[in-house]
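Morning run. Coffee first, then this:
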Amino acid sequence: MARIVANFFISLDGVVESPDQWHFPYWNDEMGAVVQAGMQNSAGMLMGRTLYEEWSAYWTTTDQDPEIAEAFNNAPKYVVSTTLEKADWNNTTVVNGDVAAGLRALMERIEGGDLQMSGSATTVRWLLANGLLDELNLLVHPIVVGRGQRLFEDTPTHKLTLVKSETFTTGVLNLRYVPDAG
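And here it is:
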């Protein structure tokens, strides 16, 4: 059975929006290894509608990073949305209607990897609230961005358990959490 694993580049003040504007000075081989390990264990990508629309527009037309574009364009993708009616991006399935039941059924069908998320803060908050998030990986960057969408805006209390932590040479913290069973 697949798990749902969310991954975020996040600032010290909790901002996850537009990491392309503040994240890259902290990228190094340590971070690359963590990102690569997550991709190797991926059975597909899970995202919300907004991220789907951004990424499908970008990755299907860019000539930047052709290997990454090919991987994203060919990977199975699942979009959680009650408003998206049609998904044209290759290998994309829309999960709508009773989304929680649809995701549970999807997770039971998938063998040999996790559904990986990179972004989609609103979707992650919903997954956590509905008991569907299995793991939360945060690459906490030593920067205060000051504005932008935060990962946990207007969110009820959810206890998490830290299961792994390491500090990269850049000062980035690699933190892995699972929802608290208690």
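The CA atoms of residues 49 and 84 lie 7 Å apart. Good start to the day.
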